[in-house]
Amino acid sequence: MSVQETINSAKKIVIKIGSNTLAQSDGTINYKFMENFSAQVAALMAQGKQIIIVSSGAQVSGLSTISGWAHKKDVHYRQALCSIGQVELMNRWRQAFAEHKIHVGQLLLTKNDFENSHVTLNIRNTMFTLVDENVIPIINENDSVATDEFSIGDNDNLSALTAKLWNADLLILFSDIDGVFTDNPKTNPDAKLIELVNNVSELRNQIKIGETNSFGTGGIETKLQSAEQCMEYEIPVLLANGSKENLLSGLYDGSLKGTLFSK
User: Is the pTM higher than 0.85?
Assistant: First the structure.
């Protein structure tokens, strides 16, 4: 099945937006992207699709609000910065979707939440209730309180956990790359986009795993981990470039490409 066919047939879609997608070159939040993206999501919802968003960007939003903290590397300042930034991030998402008369709800989660069956049931019930009322749940890790021991670590894996919990039909991971390539396309002009992946283990033997990118916590490996998790539950995963103009509608109409992980 092609990318276009996969999106067309999916009703319940989880979309993960990485920090690199949300950040401008100076590290501040790209509000224009959020406005454009919300319009595309509204168009999908008008066609009967249900959407959950996993949004990074709390720390980036914090730096956009209090730029003087950019040099502070202490973990307590980092967590405090996320606390400030999460408010700004959600306010911007609220404003962006309000233009289309769509409400949003916030869920901040940690690793412990997914390890407690009672809490997990409550998360699931809240997600279903919000979606049923045409409210978009916007999910992020609770970076203000999460530590290494209790942290999910990256929103690629958080989005996979969300997709499984919601029984999603599709997970879309937006990053700063067009998809998975045979080599790093930024350094090797001969690198080829791999458009369909049926087996992640075999893929690892065919490609070079690079390092994490500028603003985010994950690299290509965390995206492969996310895809593996979802494919076990027969949930296809699409990795695509979040910096492309009209990214959602482009994937929907087939004019943009990505890497589709599907059995």
Answer: yes
Retrieve residue 242's tokens: 């979040």
pLDDT at 217 over 60: no
DSSP character string of the chain: --HHHHHHH-SEEEEEE-HHHHB-TTSSB-HHHHHHHHHHHHHHHHTT-EEEEEE--HHHHHHHH-GGGTT---HHHHHHHHHHHHHHHHHHHHHHHHTTT--EEEEEE-HHHHH-HHHHHHHHHHHHHHHHTTPEEEEEE-TTT--GGG---SHHHHHHHHHHHHT-SEEEEEESSSSEESS-TTT-TT--EE-EES-HHHHHTTS------SS-S--HHHHHHHHHHHHHTT--EEEEETTSTTHHHHHHHTSS--EEE--
- Answer with the residue of higher pLDDT: 30 or 126: 126
141, 110 in Cβ contact below 8 A? yes
> Using one digit for the tens of pLDDT, what is the confidence trace for 250-261?
998 889 999 999
Distance CA 11, CA 9 (A): 7
CB–CB of 81/68 below 8 Å? Answer: no
The secondary structure of 80-120 as a DSSP string is: HHHHHHHHHHHHHHHHHHHTTT--EEEEEE-HHHHH-HHHH
